[in-house]
Design brief:
With 635 residues, this protein is mostly beta strands. Helices cover 12% and strands 33% of the residues.
Length: 635
């Protein structure tokens, strides 16, 4: 008749407990644990003494022995149209302790003895308060034996020569074995390690902006029948198997803030959280069947986290091994659309052989990935002996058809006239007495250097396509008029949709500015990533605390001034005005004046003339039907 260990445990365990506390059984043996040996438990059962240790989860990756290693897997998962997760799985680095192993936890245990794959005997014992109690001795004749030990979370099926562990015991089930040990009949000690049958995993989240104030919750789930429901170990063959599957649906875990994590790609610390507990599964579960589902309604990247799709690891067949402790690292990041050299728009994950040329800011506006330059010169200047002065204009007069004074500071921010109008349209230039100052500014380096610099980016991208043999949209990269010096209002799209800031914070109190710069916080991590992942450059120099000064096409507050955007690596974004002609200013200051060109990829709302007009170099191509990002907001 088949014997099952759970049945075997019941009577001995109850009797042993009664004996321990009432001391009424004359057959009981109670052995004090050696208090000096906290790394193992000595179980003396007769002519064989066992030195049994319990190995904690993750003992193979203790700090003092672990060397640097690569993640076990890496993947990128799309959670929504504009949020992705970089996912890596690592073995958890456990802290250095006085010893990896430790003595047995309080509870009931069973020692099982086999010889030549034939069951010989079994002995039960308990550990309680550092004492060992058992009801029978273990006397073995001379010979070679296999020893197995398990706790009461493991079922021993003697008739089938199997051990079985149910899923619900994945966190606590312990089994150890040592095989082909010679017993001579003389008292001897056998070291006996016991290990966890299950495996555990916890999640650490990072993001490029603070997590929701109300907290983050997520739960580990699986695809239907995606997890092992039990684990069966066959003693004669040493093979693990499972008799059933189950669908995982753990309760949601709360996440707590932990120390920020340094991100080398961003050269900065990013925000971090960690799940409050481990989740346990049985060994040999496949990671591709597991998913992380956010359940909190708080927003990250302007999108409720419970609306994210389930985070499923798609590209790994890594099995989870017994006794291991894993960390699932999830870097949540916004993703943006880009304008490609062929005139199409999409995400980098779908770029194929296309080359991104601009970061998309809304449904018809983009910003160049790098600063404009003419030759090796990034600072706009007229061609006077090669002196780089960073000039907007050298006329010394009013240059645009509209001027924004300090009393119109807020209007400079909200007026939707495009910089394309002031760069290319003849009507966008003020009527000067000197005819050489009239007409399109974008072609006049010696008069309007900053405007001339804006179109240089188009030429650079065209030449790059030619050198790499890429086909490109001639309207985008050959024809002048699509790339221009942006207005203040157009910079606000970058501030809001990429910098996750509020342009209204740049408004002057009472609508009247004092002439001093007004600043607002913006997210430098997201802005940096948006450019860098596409092969671009950030809007500042990390080694220069003054940041970069970007000319806008918006003129004011006086006829000799124009507005500039200052972008700094200290999370500050400024709006101010500056003299249009910087001749005489120190080079340490003027070297930071740059031009970052903007581009339109449809004619809606921005084109200063009717569709089909070529007055300023525009073609009449149809609008593109492009769906915006989840967090993309029109001003």
């Amino acid at each position: 008749m088949e014997k099952i260990s759970r049945q075997l445990f019941l009577v001995p365990f109850a009797m042993l407990c009664l004996a321990l506390f009432s001391a009424c059984s004359s057959n009981e043996q109670v052995i004090p644990q050696n208090p000096q040996d906290e790394n193992s438990t000595i179980v003396d059962l007769g002519n064989v003494k066992f030195d049994i240790s319990e190995m904690p989860f993750g003992e193979d990756t203790e700090d003092k022995t672990r060397t640097a290693e690569q993640p076990l897997m890496a993947d990128t998962v799309v959670l929504s149209k504009s949020v992705e997760a970089e996912v890596t799985l690592e073995r958890e680095r456990t802290p250095v302790t006085r010893g990896v192993k430790h003595g047995l936890s309080d509870g009931a245990y069973r020692l099982v003895v086999y010889q030549a794959n034939v069951f010989k005997t079994q002995v039960g014992f308990t550990v309680a308060g550092g004492k060992i109690a058992y009801l029978e001795k273990l006397i073995l004749n001379d010979g070679n034996y296999d020893f197995y030990c398990c706790n009461d979370k493991v079922e021993f099926k003697q008739g089938e020569n199997k051990f079985k562990v149910e899923f619900d015991n994945a966190a606590t089930a312990l089994i150890g074995s040592i095989k082909n040990v010679h017993v001579s009949g003389v008292r001897q000690t056998i070291s006996f390690p016991m290990k966890h049958v299950g495996t555990r995993i916890k999640t650490r989240l990072t993001a490029l902006m603070p997590f929701p104030n109300e907290g983050v919750q997520a739960k580990l789930i699986s695809v239907p029948n995606g997890a092992l429901g039990d684990m069966i170990y066959d003693i004669p063959t040493g093979v693990y198997s499972s008799s059933k599957l189950r669908t995982l649906d753990f309760p949601a875990s709360n996440y707590t803030k932990v120390a920020d994590v340094y991100d080398p790609s961003l050269k900065a610390n990013i925000y971090a959280m960690e799940s409050s507990e481990y989740r346990y599964v049985l060994l040999n579960n496949t990671l591709t069947n597991l998913m992380l589902q956010f359940t909190n309604t708080g927003q990250l990247y302007r999108k409720a986290m419970n609306s994210y799709g389930a985070l499923r690891i798609n590209s790994s067949t890594q099995y989870m091994l017994a006794g291991h402790s894993y960390v699932l690292r999830v870097k949540l990041k916004p993703t943006f659309r880009y304008l490609f050299q062929d005139g199409t728009v999409g995400y980098l994950r779908d770029k194929g052989n296309r080359m991104p040329v601009a970061l998309v800011l809304n449904n018809n506006l983009g910003i160049a990935l790098t600063d404009s330059h003419v030759g090796n010169d990034y600072v706009p200047s007229y061609s006077s002996g090669g002196v780089l002065q960073g000039n907007w204009s050298v006329t010394g007069q009013r240059d645009n058809d509209r001027l924004f004074q300090l009393t119109q500071w807020n209007d400079a921010i909200t007026t939707t006239t495009s910089g394309a109008h002031w760069t290319w349209a003849a009507g966008g230039t003020y009527n000067h007495a000197n005819a050489a100052h009239n007409g399109s500014k974008g072609d006049k380096r010696e008069v309007y250097p900053a405007f001339y610099w804006a179109d240089a980016y188009r030429e650079e991208m065209k030449n790059k396509c030619v050198s790499e043999g890429k086909l490109f949209d001639s309207n985008l990269l050959t024809q002048k008029g699509r790339w221009f010096l942006p207005s203040v209002n157009e910079w606000m799209y970058l501030l809001k949709n990429v910098g996750f800031s509020n342009p209204n914070s740049l408004f002057a109190p009472g609508g009247v500015a004092t002439g001093h710069p007004i600043s607002v916080w913006y997210n430098i991590l997201i802005v940096r990533q948006a450019f860098m992942v596409a092969g671009g450059a950030p809007l500042w120099d990390d080694t220069d605390p003054q940041g970069r000064y970007y000319w806008t096409s918006t003129e004011g507050s006086l006829t000799n001034k124009a507005y500039i955007i200052t972008v700094r690596p200290d999370w500050n974004f400024f709006l101010s005005d500056q003299k249009k002609n910087l001749t005489g200013f120190p080079i340490t200051y003027t070297k930071a004046f740059r031009v970052r060109a903007f581009v339109t990829f449809s004619n809606t709302a921005i084109h200063p003339h009717s569709g089909g007009s070529t007055e300023d170099g525009w073609a009449g191509d149809p609008d593109q039907n492009i769906s915006g990002d989840d967090f993309e907001i029109d001003l």
